[in-house]
Amino acid sequence: MEKKGYGVLHKIVLQGMKSGGLLDFHRVKTLFWRASNALSLDEEQWTSMLAIERVFKEINEKIKLYDVAIMSASCELTGEKFFMFLDMMETPAMRMETLFSKAELELFRKIMTAVLRKYEHFAVPVMDCKDMAREINARDFSIEMAEAFVQKMIGLHYFAKYYLDPKGPEYEITIGIRTIREFEPILREVYDDVMTNCHLCKMTMLHGHQCPKCSVFVHKACHEKYIKTWKTCPGCKTGMVKRVAKQMRLKTQHHQVHRIPRLLLRCQSCIQYQKNGG
Ligand SMILES: [Zn+2]
Ligand SMILES: [Zn+2]
């Protein structure tokens, strides 16, 4: 690494994160590539995960006085990693009012409430979203526009696709990682009965893996990282099953047969539970 400390590259990256809001790893890498290229720096060096994390850390040191930060977050359902720019002083409502119409925001609120209050698996059928759009009394807000808005929100990670069968095309709508991070204070205040904390990273979460024995919740991404080293449940230390195929089948069975709201952690007691015909 040629230079140390906060510099022009940091400023370019911060600007990019600010305007992007939430970027996946590929787009973050592109941002670093462009910035290093513009400054005639070695792109190879400045686009490594190590360099990216170091630059974000240095930026955060600089901007923490202003209650803003760049943080990483993984999609609860896919485990995909993102980086997002978070302004703790600005309310999410303020931010969204500049981006969306009144009717769109009303639909967003309706869908969020339905996700958290109506269904025990925290996802609403696409048909329900259309019905909610019909209830909105706004001129110039057609069902087609509502559908386009939902898709846009999926793209922005305010919403996420919740697949009913991991292999099938059918999906429902749930709230995405961006909503969980940006609306965290509101979610903890109004929906604290359904929001929980990941046993591993301690962050607020909705969808994840749950151990049927000790009931701890963990993010899919945190869990997958954890079981690479530890073959036990992070809560009760019950041993894990090794065969991945068996685990996946089990998870699907649990999900479909019992409609348990969150995916189950794959531990030995889970197998017992299944064998006993539970
Ligand atoms: Zn976690
Ligand atoms: Zn456990």
Question: Short summary of the structure?
Answer:
With 278 residues, this protein is of the alpha+beta class. It is built from 13 helices and eleven strands. It starts with 7 loop residues before the first helix and ends with a helix.
Name of the CATH architecture of the largest domain:
Orthogonal Bundle
Uncertain spans, ≥5 residues at pLDDT below 50? Answer: 242-261, 266-278
Q: How many structural domains can be distinguished in the coordinates?
A: 3
Q: Bin the helical content.
A: 40-55%
In CATH's first tier, which class of the largest domain applies? Mainly Alpha
The end-to-end distance, rounded to whole angstroms, is: 57 Å
The percentage of residues in β strands lies in: 5-15%
Instruction: Name the average pLDDT.
Output: 83
The number of helices is 13
Q: Strand pairing plus helix content: what structural class?
A: alpha+beta
Instruction: Walk across the major sheet and give the strand order.
Output: 1-3-2
Number of strands: 11
**Biggest β-sheet: count, sense, barrel?**
3 strands, antiparallel
- What is the 3D form? globular
Summary tags:
278 residues; alpha+beta; Aspartate Aminotransferase, domain 1; Arc Repressor Mutant, subunit A; Herpes Virus-1; 3 domains; 3-stranded antiparallel β-sheet; binds zinc ion; DNA recombination; DNA damage
